């Protein structure tokens, strides 16, 4: 039975259990529902849960575990000289075996016989049927493939039997438990509560997943390239992944990427902080409700625009504009019409990213400024301070910790931003203080190392995970610290 | 009932009250919050170097009137003030009158102590600093000390001037706020229920302070406690539902008011 | 009614003592400057917003139109099936020399001498290189056309399309532009014959990717994005709501739930590209899902969207007043019944608003999709979420990297489509909020 058919039958059994259990409960109540502890529907749900939950769990476990058990047993049957080959070759061999296994059902009985005695070329025959093979198949592979097909079939048969049996047994148990004083609702609600707990643990699992997956891949990278070369290296030149996939010739220095990331982030913050902060102050302290209700959403639209759009804007508009501008300026000043700003540059990426960050700064700061109690404002205004004096000398100092927190969060966004820099910053990994030249960032290199054909054994690919975990750690630290500050700040005024 | 005897002493002191100049005059003052009217044509004068108490049940408009006196109502959107209020001879709602300058002359102390989250010293020095009333460090030191002395707080805080003002007790915070207002040397100090958030001992201290400040400043105080009004003020005005019911000498007000509603309120029939 | 002291009793004090100088002028100048900074900041933001949108619209609105050339094509048997074998061998029709058929048709239409090879080549270049395939499909579908002359509408080449839309500056020397003067002349000749016209660009919405700008479309990307959104919605809404209900209504306040809380806030701030790395290593390398499939993209975007939805849902649950909970519990409802019968329905508008905003964010997300291989060149519309696909923002990224002018137009057009979707979603969220906003 196919998996979807099994799922369908489980559903049918579950519904049947529900209907039977609830009607049984109805019958037991003798028409007076107060005789029952719970409403009949809960008895039904109880039976349905017993019918479906254990069987679904077994089904999921079986589906996820059985392939690897079968694989181990097939590989165990490989001839000894094959087992002696390197792991990569072995993986390739097993890939061939499973490809043949996929192809065999498409052949007629005579063709299978022909393949087995070697009278038909298996590679050509299977290719005809739409199952390409990577190389010439050896007899042990065909044997293995047949074995694989047989074992998979047996496994599926047993699984179908076990799962359906379990479902029926569960339904029967659920039905038998129906009794007037049986607390079906409490039982069902306990299952629901566990469902809720599982859902909320997904957040934790995601974090664990991020950390573990990146740590394990990064560990494989650090096994090939020393960590000190990565963290303190000043040259980024990974070369291309070699054919064998294990060449470690390239240099993987993090420093130029980090420098570019921080530099572009710095330029972006130079744009975003003053603009965002003044916009927030104006909207919180001066603007009439009408202006506020108009300007605030307009600025927030900036936050809703996908970053790829900003990247495109930088690429086709801002970059060429800055380049032509520098050309004209240079021409007017020195007479030499050479552009000194490149179209892809730190400046271009920084300015556009800064614009993207304005709404983050302004809405975070707005929240924080309006959280300063009114009494503070009144106290200062009552002494005869002007509004700007009140803002500069009372409100901003009072809001400072919160604002710093907000800026740190914004900075972490700047560091993790990808699409703008991919399109606007360039790919040259250099250390430079000239903002008119292109530089590159950690995120750009993660993208460029992981697009195209991948070989997951080469440092050229794995370095992306080392970069990723560096990025994750930096942004995580910034965020935790920022959250801590903001929380402290909130408590102060609650 | 030594309150009464004290009031009698006050009476002797203020015998020549009617000769005292009028510091502020309110004429036909009305206030609207959007559609809602909060004050109806109030005519009320504030005498120089006198404590004027504004009493009445909650929501009667006494705080609203107080906030008109230094235009703090300007900070509330959709609040509209009509009528005329003068400080000395100046109409304070005249477009030529500057609100900052007005507030430097008419200071305010709020219901809840609201020290800035800065040091005690900076709290007091804030007003003189923004108004440029002191230049050198010595000037500031002197203003801060004098103001804290006036507020009766100096002895309690002189050793920790640079600690945060928010670390003081409630009563000390309120006296700090008074010192902060005094440091600007205003002519009038408005107090909006300055003791409502304080315990009895702290209240007594603040009342004592108000008493002393009277010699140098004109004070208008809003209070919901009639005993407090009787203790600290010489003139009392009674508000009810946005109307000024009665304005009178405090001792007369509390012994023989002209208006039946005042009597009912003072006897505790409503409020 | 009032007992006002008569003005006679207290004389108004004479004009007060000389005013102190408190630097009013200087301070008001500072005040005005400060205000001006604020206005300037807001203006800066708004101006850039307008600039960005107007650039995209100016570059992109033309992408919704496409130049097409309609000419009579003589489908001659001599060129397609000279040996008359099509009855026995259908592959003849597939391998036939269609480019020559198209070339002859345009040459004939323009009245060019077929022996002038340069001119013939230039004339043929005016029609999209996809034309022969279009013709082949036509003929294979209906072999009876062979030997007849039919009017066929071909897409114009991207350069002719640009010239027809007036995007090519004819003052530039001929050598420096992609359209020659002869071609311009022919174009005008076709125009006066009514053979060339601009039509609505349906291909933009139905075709897959192509290396020829005139034939490239968003079909695959739209279907891919649709799959992504469906997966994200189907997974993140129930999981997010369930998680929020537990955390807000049931979870004991202890170290663990505190940790989950901090964790969710942090996850909301993790750079999206990190989710891409997670998807690559867990879903593709570990679990063995196919690369470039929208299923993996959907899973990655789900994980990315969950924190946003959880935060919004918790806020919505918190906004339901405790009195509702007490009322339900007081009637003897179980805690679970209280949540599902009363609290959740009341919080639903807020939850849906948060979900739509989360989905809108996911729709515009690019970086993680690049890492899981959705940046592939896909020409066929995927039938299931397991087949290779792209997504709208990824398509924009891929076209943005193309050099040709015509791709800038396509890219901007694609951005307009993306932004329209986002505007629709956000409008939906706003309407929902307006419609169901409740003041307790």
From TrEMBL, chain A:
Pfam families: BPD_transp_1, DUF3708. The gene is pstC. PANTHER family: PHOSPHATE TRANSPORT SYSTEM PERMEASE, PHOSPHATE TRANSPORT SYSTEM PERMEASE PROTEIN. The lineage of its organism: Bacteria, Pseudomonadati, Pseudomonadota, Alphaproteobacteria, Hyphomicrobiales. One of its GO terms (molecular function) is phosphate transmembrane transporter activity. One of its GO terms (cellular component) is plasma membrane. It comes from the Bacteria. InterPro entries: MetI-like (IPR000515), MetI-like_sf (IPR035906), Phosphate_PstC (IPR011864), PstC_N (IPR022182). It is found in: Cell inner membrane; Cell membrane. Its main location: membrane. It is a multi-pass membrane protein. One of its GO terms (biological process) is phosphate ion transport. The chain crosses the membrane at residues 43-65, 157-179, 191-212, 256-281, 301-321, 341-361, 394-415, 462-486. Belongs to the binding-protein-dependent transport system permease family. CysTW subfamily. This is Phosphate transport system permease protein. CDD domains: TM_PBP2. Keywords: Cell inner membrane, Cell membrane, Membrane, Phosphate transport, Transmembrane, Transmembrane helix, Transport. Residues 258-482 form the ABC transmembrane type-1 domain. Part of the binding-protein-dependent transport system for phosphate; probably responsible for the translocation of the substrate across the membrane. Gene3D superfamilies: MetI-like (1.10.3720.10).
TrEMBL record, chain B:
GO terms for cellular component: membrane. One of its GO terms (molecular function) is ATP hydrolysis activity. InterPro entries: AAA+_ATPase, ABC_transporter-like_ATP-bd, ABC_transporter-like_CS, P-loop_NTPase, PstB-like. Residues 24-266 form the ABC transporter domain. Keywords: ATP-binding, Nucleotide-binding, Phosphate transport, Transport. SUPFAM superfamilies: P-loop containing nucleoside triphosphate hydrolases. NCBIfam families: 3a0107s01c2 (TIGR00972). Belongs to the ABC transporter superfamily. This is Phosphate ABC transporter ATP-binding protein. It comes from Metarhizobium album.
Automatic annotation (TrEMBL), chain C:
The keyword Cell membrane applies. GO terms for molecular function: phosphate transmembrane transporter activity. GO terms for biological process: phosphate ion transmembrane transport. GO terms for cellular component: plasma membrane. Its main location: membrane. The keyword Signal does not apply. PROSITE patterns: ABC_TM1. Residues 222-428 form the ABC transmembrane type-1 domain. It is found in: Cell inner membrane; Cell membrane. Keywords: Cell membrane, Membrane, Transmembrane, Transmembrane helix, Transport. It holds the Pfam family BPD_transp_1. It is a multi-pass membrane protein. The chain crosses the membrane at residues 34-57, 226-247, 267-289, 295-317, 338-363, 413-432. Belongs to the binding-protein-dependent transport system permease family. CysTW subfamily. NCBIfam families: 3a0107s02c. This is Phosphate transport system permease protein PstA. It comes from Metarhizobium album. The lineage of its organism: Bacteria, Pseudomonadati, Pseudomonadota, Alphaproteobacteria, Hyphomicrobiales. The gene is pstA.
């Amino acid at each position: 039975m196919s998996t979807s058919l099994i799922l369908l039958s489980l559903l049918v059994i579950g519904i049947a259990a529900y209907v039977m259990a609830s009607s049984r409960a109805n019958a037991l109540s003798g028409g007076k529902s107060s005789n029952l502890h719970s409403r009949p529907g809960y008895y039904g749900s109880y039976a349905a849960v017993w019918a479906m939950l254990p069987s679904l769990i077994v089904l999921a476990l079986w589906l996820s575990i059985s392939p690897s058990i079968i694989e181990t047993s097939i590989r165990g049957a490989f001839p000894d000289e094959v087992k002696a080959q390197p792991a990569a070759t072995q993986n390739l061999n097993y890939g061939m075996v499973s490809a043949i296994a996929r192809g065999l059902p498409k052949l007629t009985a005579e063709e299978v016989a022909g393949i087995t005695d070697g009278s038909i070329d298996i590679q050509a025959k299977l290719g005809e049927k739409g199952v390409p093979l990577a190389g010439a198949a050896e007899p042990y592979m065909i044997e293995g493939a047949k074995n694989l097909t047989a074992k998979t079939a047996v496994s599926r048969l047993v699984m179908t039997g076990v799962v359906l049996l379990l479902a029926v047994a569960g339904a029967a148990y659920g039905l038998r438990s129906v009794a007037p004083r049986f607390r079906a609702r409490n039982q069902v609600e306990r299952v629901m509560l566990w469902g809720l707990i599982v859902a909320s643990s997904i957040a934790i699992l995601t974090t664990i997943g991020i950390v573990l997956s990146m740590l394990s891949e990064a560990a494989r990278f650090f096994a090939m390239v020393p960590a000190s070369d990565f963290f303190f290296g000043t040259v980024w030149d990974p070369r291309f992944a070699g054919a064998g996939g294990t060449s470690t010739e390239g240099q993987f220095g993090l420093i130029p990427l980090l420098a570019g990331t921080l530099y572009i982030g710095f330029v972006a913050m130079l744009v975003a902080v003053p603009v965002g902060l003044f916009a927030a102050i104006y909207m919180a302290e001066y603007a009439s409700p009408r202006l506020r209700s108009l300007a605030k959403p307009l600025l927030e639209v900036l936050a809703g625009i996908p970053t790829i759009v900003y990247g495109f804007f930088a690429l086709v508009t801002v970059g060429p504009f800055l380049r032509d501008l520098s050309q004209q300026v240079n021409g007017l000043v020195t007479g030499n019409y050479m552009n000194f700003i490149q179209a892809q540059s730190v400046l271009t990426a920084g300015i556009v990213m800064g614009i993207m960050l304005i709404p983050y700064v302004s809405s975070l700061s707005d929240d924080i400024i309006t959280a300063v109690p009114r009494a503070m404002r009144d106290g200062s205004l009552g002494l005869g301070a002007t509004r700007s004096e009140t803002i500069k000398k009372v409100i901003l100092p009072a809001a400072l910790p919160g604002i710093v927190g907000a800026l740190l969060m914004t900075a972490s966004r700047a560091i993790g931003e990808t699409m703008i820099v991919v399109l606007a910053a360039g790919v040259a990994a250099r250390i430079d203080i000239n903002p008119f030249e292109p530089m590159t960032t950690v995120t750009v290199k993660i993208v460029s190392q992981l697009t195209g054909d991948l070989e997951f054994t080469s440092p050229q690919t794995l370095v992306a995970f080392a970069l990723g975990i560096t990025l994750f750690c930096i942004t995580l630290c910034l965020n935790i610290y920022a959250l801590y500050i903001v929380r402290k700040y909130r408590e102060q005024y609650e | 009932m030594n309150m009464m005897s004290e009031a009698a002493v006050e009476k002797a002191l203020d015998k020549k009250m009617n000769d005292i100049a009028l510091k502020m005059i309110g004429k036909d003052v009305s206030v609207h919050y959007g559609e809602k009217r909060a004050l109806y044509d109030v005519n009320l004068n504030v005498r120089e170097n006198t404590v004027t108490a504004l009493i009445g049940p909650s929501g009667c408009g006494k705080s609203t009137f107080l906030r008109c006196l230094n235009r703090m109502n300007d900070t509330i959107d959709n609040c509209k003030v009509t009528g005329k209020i003068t400080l000395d001879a100046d109409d304070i709602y005249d477009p030529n009158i500057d609100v900052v300058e007005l507030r430097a002359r008419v200071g305010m102390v709020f219901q809840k102590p609201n020290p800035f989250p800065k040091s005690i010293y900076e709290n007091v020095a804030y007003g003189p600093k923004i108004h440029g009333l002191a230049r050198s460090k010595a000037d500031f030191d002197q203003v801060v000390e004098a103001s804290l002395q006036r507020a009766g707080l100096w002895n309690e805080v002189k050793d920790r001037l640079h600690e945060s003002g928010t670390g003081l007790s409630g009563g000390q915070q309120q006296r700090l706020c008074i010192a902060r207002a005094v440091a600007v040397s205003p002519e009038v100090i408005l107090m909006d229920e300055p003791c409502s958030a304080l315990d009895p001992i702290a209240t007594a201290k603040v009342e004592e302070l108000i008493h002393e400040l009277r010699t140098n400043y004109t004070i208008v105080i809003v209070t919901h406690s009639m005993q407090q009004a009787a203790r600290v003020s010489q003139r009392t005005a009674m508000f009810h539902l946005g109307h000024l019911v009665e304005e009178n000498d405090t001792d007369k007000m509390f012994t023989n008011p002209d208006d039946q509603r005042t009597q009912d309120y003072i006897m505790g029939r409503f409020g | 009614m009032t007992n006002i002291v008569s003005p006679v009793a207290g004389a108004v004090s004479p004009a007060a003592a000389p005013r102190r100088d408190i630097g009013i002028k200087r301070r008001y100048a500072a005040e005005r400057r400060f205000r001006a900074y604020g206005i300037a900041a807001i203006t800066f933001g708004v101006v850039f917003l307008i600039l960005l949108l107007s650039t995209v619209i100016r570059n992109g609105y033309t992408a919704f139109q496409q130049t097409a050339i309609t000419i009579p094509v003589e489908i001659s048997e001599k060129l397609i099936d000279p040996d008359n074998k099509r009855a026995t061998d259908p592959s003849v029709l597939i391998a036939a020399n269609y480019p020559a058929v198209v070339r002859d048709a345009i040459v004939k239409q323009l009245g060019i001498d077929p022996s002038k090879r340069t001119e013939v080549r230039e004339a043929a270049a005016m029609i999209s290189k996809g034309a022969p395939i279009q013709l082949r499909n036509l003929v294979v579908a209906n072999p009876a056309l062979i030997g007849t002359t039919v009017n066929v509408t071909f897409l114009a080449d991207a350069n002719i399309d640009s010239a027809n839309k007036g995007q090519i500056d004819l003052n530039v020397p001929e050598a420096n532009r992609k359209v020659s003067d002869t071609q311009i002349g022919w174009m005008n000749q076709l125009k006066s014959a009514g053979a060339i016209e601009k039509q609505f660009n349906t291909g933009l919405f139905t075709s897959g990717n192509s290396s020829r700008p005139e034939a490239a479309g968003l079909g695959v990307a739209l279907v891919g994005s649709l799959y992504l959104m469906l997966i994200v919605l189907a997974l993140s809404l129930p999981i997010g709501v369930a998680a929020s209900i537990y955390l807000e209504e049931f979870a004991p306040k202890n170290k663990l739930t505190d940790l989950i809380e901090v964790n969710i806030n942090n996850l909301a701030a993790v750079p999206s590209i990190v989710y891409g790395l997670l998807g690559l290593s867990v879903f593709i390398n570990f679990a063995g899902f196919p690369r470039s499939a929208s299923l993996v993209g959907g899973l990655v975007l789900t994980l990315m969207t969950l924190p946003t939805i959880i935060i919004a849902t918790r806020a919505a649950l918190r906004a339901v007043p405790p009195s509702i909970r007490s009322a339900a519990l007081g009637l003897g409802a179980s805690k679970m019944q209280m949540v599902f019968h009363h609290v959740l329905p009341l919080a639903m508008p807020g939850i849906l608003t948060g979900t739509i905003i989360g989905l809108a964010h996911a729709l515009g997300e690019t970086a993680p999709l690049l890492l899981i291989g959705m940046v592939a060149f896909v020409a066929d519309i995927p039938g299931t979420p397991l087949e290779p696909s792209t997504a709208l923002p990824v398509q924009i990224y891929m076209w943005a990297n193309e050099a040709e002018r015509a791709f800038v137009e396509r890219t901007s057009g694609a951005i307009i489509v993306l932004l329209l979707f986002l505007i629709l979603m956000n409008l939906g969220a706003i309407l929902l909020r307006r419609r169901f906003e409740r003041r307790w």
